[in-house]
Write a structure and sequence with these properties.
Layout lengths: L2 H12 L4 H13 L5 H8 L5 H11 L19 H12 L1
Helix pairs in contact: 1-2, 2-4, 4-5
């Protein structure tokens, strides 16, 4: 996903009222696309709830083009348990 596509996705996700709707839009966009770790971090920042962020990070991991930089998304989480859950899913 190119920079302007990421910007459009972030804006589209932000325009939704509910976290569940934001999550659905983000997942739909990533299904047939790829994203860089820093852009995923921006996308995670559009979500309000920790569990939504965890779900999106786990879903998005296979679509991250620079998986060596995936550690950067961990700053998006409040809880160590969330980071561990995402790390465990990424290792599978």
């Amino acid at each position: 996903m190119q920079g302007q596509d990421v910007d459009a996705l972030v804006n589209s996700v932000r325009s939704k009222s509910f976290d569940s709707s934001r999550l659905d839009v983000a997942k739909q966009a990533l299904e047939q696309s790829t994203i860089q770790a820093d852009d995923l971090k921006r996308l995670l920042g559009t979500l309000d709830f920790e569990n939504s962020k965890v779900e999106l990070a786990k879903f998005a991991y296979p679509h991250v083009t620079d998986q060596q930089n995936f550690y950067r998304v961990y700053d998006s989480f409040q809880f160590e348990s969330s980071i561990k859950e995402v790390q465990d899913a990424a290792r599978r």
